[in-house]
């Protein structure tokens, strides 16, 4: 039995990580080692990355190389099965709470696209419009509308329509999906779900009964139009580590209802521009780079709002070098600068004080602008009809090609 | 003789202006459309009126409820039509906050915008103006008060007539032009703060307006209003829309026949290949210079070929995926509307 975190036992000073709240101890940095330990998942180390490279015959994604996706559950089982010729499918999702997507939101999707291309496997993407309707008190129509708008940005990440099924809960829940929801729900007591998610007597019953909705896309029988007859198809879930509680619950239930446990591959949190201690917030446009930002906006935000580890004066900087631990431009570059050699060079020079903050920021601005511009072009090509096609309940005959 | 010659040029320029304005629907076209859709409505002609009060004099006692219609604009040049029962209190400051635009984010739109975007005359703001392609990005906010009225009164694209219909009829019309009718409590004043997101944020238009004639002030990035959502009016966004790799075969439609949906961009193989070739040749040219020739000599071919593959591989794959997705969508659209063979 895996450790299921009991939220009620958390003392006040500890860091808090769950689907609705992420905060570090004493306003400091998130301790990922502690998190892995507490959650009971595994580190994704270099041998794994090498194995992925061997199996897929292509360079591993920059997020793997830089340790952005750093933890997993049973990813080795997925790779073992893949080596034997057994396929799997990918499952990821988004809670459409706002129209403005920032780069942090794109990270799981960028990685999932790489996984789809590298392993040649199908993907289901869940838009939890019902969750946002309940937690953020949006109207049903608004949450559905946001789901469709977010779908466009997701599609712009480059998913292959012949291998991808996007669905919104309001549209899709029912039939086989709902049957699995009930099966899961029967296996989780009220006390257990309160322990995992911290619900109180004041929370409405919608919230309490939501977790199965996010659990069942892990089971292929939830998608009879896609995986009929493939009940033993494995599932791999790329997500940020704060989603782990849902899937710990799912993995606990799976064997009891005769399904494979889904595997997970988990990422760090993307830091806010103002630094690790800052929070990215939808009401502060300067805390993040949005996919709708212009080149000018990006330059402004990086120059004026990115928290740096550079010293206060040029002389001091030349003498002591930059503090790479807290420097946001370096962190962002480690997410988005493809060239390993160039990143190493920048880190070395900046850390030694030979390169100035301005130069690092300039390079970051270039990289981010190119990324955002590419995304915008792709987004411009996404029409409502394309969204309809991605979201249509249809067979995907070529999903493993 | 002279008088006639003087009058002629102005008459001709007025006529020309009318011809240029082919994209705007006329009142008669709208009425014909309503009849086509089998929407129950009645109409009443009267002298031109510019205000609700004036309109009330003619149609106030006919059993329907008058509407007041505002055409608004925010700081990022996004437009809104607010259509409410004449008695509903509409507080622009509250509305602005509920939309996430901050306290003073909404103003009355300038007169020119009325003609350019809604294509209706002064005093004639009406929800029916969204039938025009030019109004595609205008957000429509409807008073929930309409839903309980037997009969609501609007202008049908000109102010010498009023039409009477109920909310269901309005809904049917709106759906026919690709809009999802959504009614809100315009008098509500919910708190907006860190933990209470603006409840009408979904009504802020997400697409950048395609019109670039309107003067664009570069918005300062330190916008204190809630969200820096979507509709950037800067040129980068407009260019991005224009440079679609999959091309847009029939971009300009004269008169939308069944709905005002944007045309499905064609997966244009020619344009796609041109885009690929452009990128490859740009990279090729940048790779070949005096220095690189000196450096690699006869091996330059291999070197350049490898570099091109390395640099372009992901980019071109992305372009190809967009092309594939577009072609699939075209096929899907056609497939869902195909008529099975009659046997």
Automatic annotation (TrEMBL), chain A:
Its EC number is 6.1.1.2. InterPro entries: aa-tRNA-synth_I_CS, aa-tRNA-synth_Ic, Rossmann-like_a/b/a_fold, Trp-tRNA-ligase. Keywords: Aminoacyl-tRNA synthetase, ATP-binding, Ligase, Nucleotide-binding, Protein biosynthesis. CDD domains: TrpRS_core (cd00806). It holds the Pfam family tRNA-synt_1b. Belongs to the class-I aminoacyl-tRNA synthetase family. This is tryptophan--tRNA ligase. It comes from Hibiscus sabdariffa.
Automatic annotation (TrEMBL), chain B:
Residues 231-244 have a biased composition (Low complexity). CDD domains: PrdX_deacylase. Residues 46-173 form the YbaK/aminoacyl-tRNA synthetase-associated domain. Residues 186-263 are annotated as: Disordered. It comes from the Eukaryota. Residues 1-22 form the signal peptide. Keywords: Signal. Gene3D superfamilies: YbaK/aminoacyl-tRNA synthetase-associated domain (3.90.960.10). Belongs to the PRORSD1 family. This is YbaK/aminoacyl-tRNA synthetase-associated domain-containing protein. The lineage of its organism: Eukaryota, Viridiplantae, Streptophyta, Embryophyta, Tracheophyta.
